[in-house]
Amino acid sequence: MTERPRAVVLLSGGLDSATVLAIASDLGFFCHALSVDYGQRHRAELDAARRVAAAQKVVSHSVVPIGLGAIGGSALTDPQIPVPKQPSEGIPVTYVPARNTVLLALALGQAEVIGAGDIFVGVNAVDYSGYPDCRPEFIAKFQELADLATKAGVEGRSAQIHAPLISLSKADIIRRGIALGIDYGLTVSCYQADDAGRACGVCDSCRLRAEGFRTASVPDPTAYW
């Protein structure tokens, strides 16, 4: 009997990453969830990640601490920068410099250590905030890096980066997740959620999430302040 393949799944605790985890599991992978404590102000998402990982019965769940707050430059890591209440022009201040590059690098390292040939990430380039590291071009370039920068890649066994949500609307993501049995009440998307995981309802992430549920005609289980 062929052993099921292993995959590392980046799990933030939000709606998108919970959906990606369910997709990877449905595809037959043994899933190793990886969350990153990068100093985010919405730390309730890490509790959500633990809930989602337990509910989806992952093989393992690692939480890696790093200090992107030391770099600063984002409303998500610097408490002195307010989270915008209205959409803004260009790339918003909630963009975290180098975040997805660092997260994927950590996933790449874990994949090499545990012998996983696949990495799943929940980036989306349709209903998103315009972050440059959520685009298909970024994923393609990171795949090139993975092929060049690892022992596995040099030996022809490079981990494959999967971004199955990248061209889906938020409503389509929600519909996919509901079909896979996800309880979105376990997730936290808000950029300034309180310690109980309740959402503000006004940040960009809250607006995208709420509109997704409305468009999908699915009841929104989000708890608000």
Structural overview:
There is one protein chain. The chain has 225 residues and is an alpha/beta fold. Helices cover 36% and strands 11% of the residues. It contains 7 helices and 5 strands, in the order E-H-E-H-E-H-E-H-H-E-H-H. The chain has helices at 15-26, 44-55, 99-114, 136-149, 151-154, 170-179, 204-216, and strands spanning 6-10, 30-37, 60-65, 118-120, 160-162. The protein has a 5-stranded parallel sheet with strand order 3-2-1-4-5, sandwiched between helices. Helix 2 links the parallel strand 2 (30-37) and strand 3. The longest helix has 16 residues, at 99-114. The protein starts with 5 loop residues before the first strand and ends in a 9-residue tail after the last helix. The mean pLDDT is 95.
